[in-house]
Each structure stands twice: as structure tokens, then as C-alpha cells.
């Protein structure tokens, strides 16, 4: 049994790396066929002829030599040098990924808790007006993605009500007072978080509502209820653990949404995360940085999926065979 | 049993009263800078920041009244040129130290000159060493060029037959003891690029990418005194509206490129001093003058290009979209160069009748009465390409489209993504386009108007004029600034007559500075000049 377990994990890791390499290769191709040069340098009024010609010569390499060069460097653990920032790409990504992770994780946890709470309430009061209303509302909200929600929030809360800023991140706080720091963060990240949460919550609410309702009508739960055990105790001890498996499988699929959602949020709200770094790298024709950002996103997505699969196996051993 | 979940998000707004005099002098920018290493800095802002961090032998400042550049000694204490200016003896200050405590000596100067012209490194100064002795591989010939007399005295010998001046001495001095330890292949990604060892009036305290750069007063520097502002911050705020908002509520002290629609609002606010930095930049509509070695079928004719210039109502654009923050342009020599311009050439006025006469004399007639001119069977139709990201330019193009329709020219407007646009421009695949250009100081006409594409990569027009070529060559061999200026004027008037592109308007850069900042200097050469002399008074 244990041997089997390691075998599966090793195989999954193998698949993970093959997928990452495949993604990387496709991205090199995409970057290669895209037009443009490091034009931002060429727009400098202080350019001279010799240097311009030298920079222009950069793009003369063939696709094969470029991709082989990149792969060799990647195996060496060197992601390359950013031409936009004159810095090692890994260091740059490290600086920006913390911000992205902060946003993603906070948004995810918050929406997870909110939708679970709402779903708990409505599933324990089925067919009441609250339940029906929430059902209809979530169907409508389902069609609102981050790219629609974010501008609406800005329009309402920044332009009309002027409660929150249009964009930005608490980038420089002089005060050491923890309350000031906290309020500054709230001031800046409420809208970005809200736009992510609003676009994700309807989906999760529906899943939770469905699963909670399903499980609470299972014979063993009904039996427990008939014994007169506290409803809350049943929920936390029986319903929630039993629903986790199905929920986690959905989380794995939805991580892609979350990553792309955070990319849009970062660009709209000017948050210095990997999404904005990626976006700027593309426009500055910073090949190495573009590739590295893509690689990181793909890697994180695959890695989290891998971790979620392991979690699911830990929760439910029966999955060991179906998940190979 | 019912359970109610109540969520209360209580925002405690603590009314703290920060001490404003300690608040750093804050500059607002839309995009983060690339690097702090002067070797790799290409943008204006970067070189302005470098001026705060690194010393150079001489410093160039701009006299807005006279419109000329003058040099001033900064690291150098004494500069003695010999009679034919082929050699220069430089004595530098002996009290300058690097931020790690090591003294700054002539070794650092020689090292910096050598490094910046290394062909392997693609430094932004590469290609400027035309007055120096170079080896066959393109490197600087150190043996022939430098003579180190002592730790603080140095002699520089220039190539015979050249005419060096103070501009050849204006390079940032880099720390030899730090950079020589970095392998050359690693230099473009070294830690030095974002956490440099510096010698200027300020040193780097913290740099968070895409967030802010914080500089701290270098107390050991001879440039600073008690009144010098202790902290300077460069804040990255991508959204323009947010920058304006932060300027208004006092979070920013300095903001440049204020859009024309906000100018009057900022001026009337009373909290700011506004400065208008005059036309270093201009917008133009460019035409491919020659295609595949032959004159372009439409734009190869001077009359056609002039007719287009006559038919564009630029005054309306300046009034309606630029809110009079620009001036009508006439030629490539922008109004910034007051000392050079002998006589301001009159801008071509809006006059559709003259345009029609010119087009008729160029052979264009509307034979089939469909409102569009024809010649030899083909219609006067073309597409004007623009790059994305500049909405004002796109509005202006729509107005010009209507203007041209009135004289019988059918112009389409197409917006391209900027990379695609630049790519096509460099490959000379665009017949007509609209773009801006910023003049270098002093102006370099060879880059844009010389006919050899190898030496003039910015000549997107395929413009060929042998008179201009010979003038540019003569210009390079002259020393007297009077004669040089005369030639610049000659080139300017030739370009004006030929109109290889239609010069639309010179654009002003409007800068707002919070009134708490005193004694500031801003000009077209240095957006923020000698910040160590600025002061903050509440």
C-alpha cells in the first residue's frame, strides 16, 4: 500500500515537470513570433546610431538557438536576466509574487468562508425566500467576471462615493502604528479583494449549497438528527468533513480562474504583483521575464493541483486508485 | 434554533497628525525606472536620478532664458584645456568618498570611461566616444588616452583632429573597486544595478520594485548642507487619475506631464506652483518619402506633403484637445533651442485653398466626381497608422481625417499595438504614421535626417537629401558654436521647405510642484535639477 502511494506521487511529479516544460516550449514559440523590439530604449532621445544598430541586432537569432539556449539555462537553474529591469528574473519574481500570493490567498480564504456560511444558512432553510433569492442572485452574479466587477466597483466606490482609492497598493507607510498600517491596507486592498471575491463567490456558494444539502439528506445524517444531536455538532463533525473531498476537487480546477482573475485585478488596480510584472514585461518585450512569469504561473497552478490531489487522497483513501 | 451571523467591519480611522516637515519630497511617476546603474539607464528620469546618486566631472545645466546649455565643475576642481583642446588636465576634489567609505580617485574615472565604451556591455554611453582613441576591437585605448599623474590629477588626450568639449567629460563615475569584481557577463544583472555604491548627494535607502524608491541624504557629500531635504521618494502610481488625486491631497509634491484638461484646475488650486517646460518634444505625421529606391507614388512629391500640411487644422486641435499647452510647429529645431534658432520659421497655416492648388499642380484631379482626387488612374487613399496608448493622438487623427476629406484625400486611421507599430516603422513598412519625437540636447540631426540608414536608424522617412547629408558631415567637423548653429539653421530650413513629415505641434511638459517646496529648479534638460539645493518649508 505504502509503495503504491510513493509510486503514484513520483508519477505525478514526473507529469508535473513534463507539463511545465511543454508550457515553457509553447511560450518560447509565442514570444518568438510576437513583433517588436526593446523599443522603450529606442525611444530615448539620447540614442545614437551605433547603439541602436547594436540593439536591433538582438532579434536576429533563430527560434531553435533561442529555445535551446533558454532550456540549457533553465536546467542550470538560471531563469535569465530581465532587460526591462536589469536584474535577475528570479529575484524580481520573488519580490512580486509575495504581493500576488497575499491577494490570492486572502481573497480565496475570505470567499471560501463567506460562501460556506451563506450556504450553511440557506441549505438548512431550504425553499425559504432567502434560499430562493440567493439562488437567483448567484445565477446572475455568476456571469460577472473580475473584468466587469472591478470597473463597476471603481465607478461606484472611487468616483461616485470616493470612499476607496482608484488604484494603488500601500507601498510606503511611514507610521509604525499597527492600527494605521491596518487601516491603510484596508483602504487600498478592499476593492481589489472585493472584485475577486464577488466574481468567485457565486460559484462556490452554489457548490457548497448543493453539497451541504445533499449530504444533510443522506440517511446517516438523518439518523444522527433523529437521535437529537446538536445540529451544529453534526455540521462540523459529519457534513463538513464529508463535503471537503468534492469541494477540494473543484478548488483544483478553479485555481486557474483565481490566477487569471488576480492578473486582471493587479492590472486594473495597479497592484505590484506578478500579474502586472507579466503584463509590463510583454509590452517592454522583455523575453526572459515574460517566459519566467508564465513559467511561474504554470508551475504554481500545477503544484497547487498536485498538493490538492494529495490532500484529497489523505482525506479519502479510496481515491488512491482513481487518481493515478 | 436560529443562528444569526453578523459581520461588522469596523474601520477605525485613527486621526494621526504626521509631522509634515519629515515627509519625504515625493515625486510621482507612472512606470518604475529600469535601473540605478547609469550604464544601463536610457530614460530621462533615470539619468536625473543618477545625477543625485553619482558624481560626474562636470555638470551640464540648462539656461531657460538663453536656451542654451552650460557646464559647471562638480567633481573636477580645475579643468585646463590646452590651446588646441586636444588634451585636458583635470584636478578632482580630494574629499569625495563612495558610500562604502573608499575614496574616489582618478582610477575610478579611467575605469568608468573604459567600462562605458566596452562593446560587450551595450551601455547607454556606447557610441559617444567619437573623440577618443579606440583600439581595433572598439574599446577605449587607455594607454593613449589617459595619463594618471596622481590620485587626484589626470590628463586625458583626445584623438588627433577631433574637437572635444566639456560634453566629453560628462559621464557618471562608477566605483572601480565594486564593479571590477563583477564578471562582465553578470554586470547587466548585478546587485549593483539596484543597490549601487554611490558618491553623489544622495544614496539609496530602499527600492521596492514597482512601488517606490527612497533616497537618503549623503551627509558626507560636499554638495549637501543642513537645509538639504533628507529624504526623497519616487513613487510609482500607474494610473494617471490617481496621480492627480495624490498630488491634490498632498501625497505627491511633484508631478510632470500633467494632461491639458487638468492644467487649469491645478493652477487654480493655489497649493501648487506650475511650470511649463517648453517644447523639447513634437508630434508629427510622417511619410515614407522613398519606397524601394524610388520616390513614393503619393508622398514622394514635395507639393503633396505641403498640401497635406496646409489642409490640417492644427489650431483647432491645440485649442480643443491640448487646451493651448502646445504651439504650432514648423521644423525639427524646436523652440527650446532659443540660442540656436536664428529666425523662427512661420508654421504652415491651415489653408485648404492653397492645399487644393498644390494638389492640382501635382497632377491630382477629381475626374469621376466622387470627392476623392485621382492621378494616373489611382485614387489618393492612404492609411495613417498610430500606436495604441495615446488617446489624444487618436482624437487628433480623426480631426485630420475630416480636414483631408475636404481637400479630396481619403485617409483611414488605424491604431496598432505599440510593438507591432514600432516593428513596422523600423522595417519601413508604414507609408504614413503619426508619432512624437524628442530632441536630444544638443540636437542631433544626423540620427533622423541623414540618408544612410546605418548611421540614421531614426530616419523612418527614407528621406534623402544630399545637401542635408553634406551639411551634417560639415557640422561634425566644426568647433565654433556659431558656425555649428548656422548649419543647424540651414538644415532646419531645408527640412521646413521639403516637409518630409508634417510637423504638427511642439508639446509642453506641464509640471506641478507643491508650494511647500522652495528653491526648486526644473527645466527641459533636467526635469528636476540640483535637488540637493531644494528646500522644504511648511
Provide the descriptors you would attach to this structure in a database record.
heterodimer, A: 324 residues, mainly alpha, two-stranded antiparallel ribbon, globular, B: 538 residues, alpha+beta, Dipeptide-binding Protein, domain 1, Dipeptide-binding Protein, domain 3, 2 domains, nine-stranded mixed β-sheet, four-stranded antiparallel β-sheet, 14 helices, disordered N terminus
The biggest beta sheet of chain B reads: 9 strands, mixed
* Assigned CATH architecture of the largest domain in chain B: Roll
User: Which strand-content bin applies to the residues of chain B?
Assistant: 15-25%
Weakly predicted, low-confidence segments of chain A: none
**Structural class, judged by helices and strands of chain A?**
mainly alpha
Structural classification of chain B? alpha+beta
Mean pLDDT score of chain A: 82
Helix/strand order of chain A, N-terminal first: HHHHEEHHHHHHHHH
**Silhouette of chain A:** globular
Spell out the CATH superfamily of the largest domain in chain B: Dipeptide-binding Protein, Domain 3
Total number of helical segments of chain A? 13
Largest sheet strand order of chain A: 1-2
Distance between the amino and carboxyl termini of chain A: 14 Å
Describe this protein's structure.
The complex is a heterodimer of chains A (324) and B (538). Chain A is an all-alpha fold and 324 residues long. Chain A has helices at 2-33, 39-42, 49-56, 63-75, 89-123, 129-141, 146-160, 178-216, 219-226, 231-269, 274-283, 287-315, 319-322, and strands at residues 81-82, 87-88. The model of chain A has no long low-confidence stretch (mean pLDDT 82). Chain B has 538 residues and is an alpha+beta fold. Chain B has two domains: 2-195 and 516-536, Dipeptide-binding Protein, domain 1, CATH 3.90.76; 282-507, Roll (Dipeptide-binding Protein, domain 3). In chain B, strands 1, 8, 9, 10, 11, 12, 15, 20 and 21 form a nine-stranded mixed beta sheet that branches. A four-stranded antiparallel beta sheet of chain B has the order 4-5-7-6. In chain B, strands 2-3 form a two-stranded antiparallel sheet. In chain B, a hairpin with a 4-residue loop joins strand 2 (58-63) and strand 3 (68-73). Residues 1-19 of chain B have low confidence and may be disordered. The chains are: A mainly alpha (324), B alpha+beta (538). At the A-B interface, helix 2, helix 3, strand 1, strand 2 and helix 5 of A face strand 10, helix 5 and helix 11 of B.
Amino acid at each position: 500500500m505504502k509503495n503504491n502511494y510513493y509510486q503514484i506521487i513520483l508519477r505525478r511529479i514526473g507529469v508535473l515537470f513534463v507539463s511545465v516544460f511543454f508550457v515553457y516550449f509553447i511560450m518560447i514559440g509565442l514570444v518568438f513570433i510576437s513583433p517588436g523590439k526593446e523599443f522603450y530604449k529606442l525611444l530615448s532621445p539620447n540614442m545614437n546610431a551605433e547603439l541602436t544598430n547594436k540593439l536591433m541586432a538582438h532579434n536576429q537569432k533563430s527560434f531553435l538557438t533561442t529555445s535551446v539556449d533558454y532550456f540549457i539555462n533553465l536546467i542550470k537553474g538560471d531563469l535569465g536576466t530581465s532587460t526591462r529591469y536589469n536584474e535577475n528574473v528570479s529575484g524580481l519574481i520573488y519580490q512580486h509574487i509575495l504581493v500576488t500570493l497575499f491577494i490570492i490567498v486572502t481573497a480565496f480564504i475570505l470567499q471560501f468562508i463567506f460562501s460556506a456560511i451563506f450556504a450553511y444558512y440557506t441549505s438548512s432553510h431550504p425553499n425559504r425566500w432567502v434560499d430562493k433569492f440567493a439562488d437567483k442572485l448567484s445565477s446572475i452574479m455568476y456571469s460577472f467576471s473580475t473584468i466587469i466587477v472591478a470597473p463597476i466597483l471603481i465607478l461606484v466606490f472611487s468616483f461616485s462615493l470616493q470612499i476607496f482609492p482608484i488604484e494603488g497598493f500601500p507601498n510606503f507607510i511611514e507610521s509604525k502604528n499597527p492600527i494605521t498600517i491596518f487601516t491603510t491596507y484596508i483602504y487600498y486592498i478592499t476593492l481589489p479583494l472585493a472584485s475577486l471575491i464577488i466574481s468567485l463567490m457565486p460559484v462556490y456558494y452554489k457548490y457548497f449549497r448543493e453539497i451541504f444539502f445533499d449530504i444533510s439528506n443522506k440517511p446517516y445524517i438523518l439518523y444522527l438528527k433523529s437521535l437529537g444531536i446538536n445540529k451544529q455538532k453534526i455540521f462540523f463533525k459529519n457534513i463538513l468533513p464529508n463535503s471537503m473531498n468534492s469541494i477540494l476537487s473543484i478548488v483544483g480546477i478553479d485555481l486557474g480562474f483565481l490566477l487569471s482573475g488576480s492578473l486582471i485585478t493587479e492590472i486594473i488596480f495597479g497592484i505590484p504583483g506578478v500579474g502586472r510584472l507579466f503584463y509590463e514585461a510583454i509590452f517592454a518585450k522583455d523575453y526572459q521575464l515574460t517566459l519566467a512569469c508564465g513559467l511561474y504561473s504554470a508551475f504554481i497552478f500545477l503544484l497547487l493541483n498536485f498538493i490538492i490531489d494529495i490532500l484529497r487522497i489523505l482525506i479519502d483513501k479510496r481515491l488512491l486508485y482513481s487518481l493515478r | 434554533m436560529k443562528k444569526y451571523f453578523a459581520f461588522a467591519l469596523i474601520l477605525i480611522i485613527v486621526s494621526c497628525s504626521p509631522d509634515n516637515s519629515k515627509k519625504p519630497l515625493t515625486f510621482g511617476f507612472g512606470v518604475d525606472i529600469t535601473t540605478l546603474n547609469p550604464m544601463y539607464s536610457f530614460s530621462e528620469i533615470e539619468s536625473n536620478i543618477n545625477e543625485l546618486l553619482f558624481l560626474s566631472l562636470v555638470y551640464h545645466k540648462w539656461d531657460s532664458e538663453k536656451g542654451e546649455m552650460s557646464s559647471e565643475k562638480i567633481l573636477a576642481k580645475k579643468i585646463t584645456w590646452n590651446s588646441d583642446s586636444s588634451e585636458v588636465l583635470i584636478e578632482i576634489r580630494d574629499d569625495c568618498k563612495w558610500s562604502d567609505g573608499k575614496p574616489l580617485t582618478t582610477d575610478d574615472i579611467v575605469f568608468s570611461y573604459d567600462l562605458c565604451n566596452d562593446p560587450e556591455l551595450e551601455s547607454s554611453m556606447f557610441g559617444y566616444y567619437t573623440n577618443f582613441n579606440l583600439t581595433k576591437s572598439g574599446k577605449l585605448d587607455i594607454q593613449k588616452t589617459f595619463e594618471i599623474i596622481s590620485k587626484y590629477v589626470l590628463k586625458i588626450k583626445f584623438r588627433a583632429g577631433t574637437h572635444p568639449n566639456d560634453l566629453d567629460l560628462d559621464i557618471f563615475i562608477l566605483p572601480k573597486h565594486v564593479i571590477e569584481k563583477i564578471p562582465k557577463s553578470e554586470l547587466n544583472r548585478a546587485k549593483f544595478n539596484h543597490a549601487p555604491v554611490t558618491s553623489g548627494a544622495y544614496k539609496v535607502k530602499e527600492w521596492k520594485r514597482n512601488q517606490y524608491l527612497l533616497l537618503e541624504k549623503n551627509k558626507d557629500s560636499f554638495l549637501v548642507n543642513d537645509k538639504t531635504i533628507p529624504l526623497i521618494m519616487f513613487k510609482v502610481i500607474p494610473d494617471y487619475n490617481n496621480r492627480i488625486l495624490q498630488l491634490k491631497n498632498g501625497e505627491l509634491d511633484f508631478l510632470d506631464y500633467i494632461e491639458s484638461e487638468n492644467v487649469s484646475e491645478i493652477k487654480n488650486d493655489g497649493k501648487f506652483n506650475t511650470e511649463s517646460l517648453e517644447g523639447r518634444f513634437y508630434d508629427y505625421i510622417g511619410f515614407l518619402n522613398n519606397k524601394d529606391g524610388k520616390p513614393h507614388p503619393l508622398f514622394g512629391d514635395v507639393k503633396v506633403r505641403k498640401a497635406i500640411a496646409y489642409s490640417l487644422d492644427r489650431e483647432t486641435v491645440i485649442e480643443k484637445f491640448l487646451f493651448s499647452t502646445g504651439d504650432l510647429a514648423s521644423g525639427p529645431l524646436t523652440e527650446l533651442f532659443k540660442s540656436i534658432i536664428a529666425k523662427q520659421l512661420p508654421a504652415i497655416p491651415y489653408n485648404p485653398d492653397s492645399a487644393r492648388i498644390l494638389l492640382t499642380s501635382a497632377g491630382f484631379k477629381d475626374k469621376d466626381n466622387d470627392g476623392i482626387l485621382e492621378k494616373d488612374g489611382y485614387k489618393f487613399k492612404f492609411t495613417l497608422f498610430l500606436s495604441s496608448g495615446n488617446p489624444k493622438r487618436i482624437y487628433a487623427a480623426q480631426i485630420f481625417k475630416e480636414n483631408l476629406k475636404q481637400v479630396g484625400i481619403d485617409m483611414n486611421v488605424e491604431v496598432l499595438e505599440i510593438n507591432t507599430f514600432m516593428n513596422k516603422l523600423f522595417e519601413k513598412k508604414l507609408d504614413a504614421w503619426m508619432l512624437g519625437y524628442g530632441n536630444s540636447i544638443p540636437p542631433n540631426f544626423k540620427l533622423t535626417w541623414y540618408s544612410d540608414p546605418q548611421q540614421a536608424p531614426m530616419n523612418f522617412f527614407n528621406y534623402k537629401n544630399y545637401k542635408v547629408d553634406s551639411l551634417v558631415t560639415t557640422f561634425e567637423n566644426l568647433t565654433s558654436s556659431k558656425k555649428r548653429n548656422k548649419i543647424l539653421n540651414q538644415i532646419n530650413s531645408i527640412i521646413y521647405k521639403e516637409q518630409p513629415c508634417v510637423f504638427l505641434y511642439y508639446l509642453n511638459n506641464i509640471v506641478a510642484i507643491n508650494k511647500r517646496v522652495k528653491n526648486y529648479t526644473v527645466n527641459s534638460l533636467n526635469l528636476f535639477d540640483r535637488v540637493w539645493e531644494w528646500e522644504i518649508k511648511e
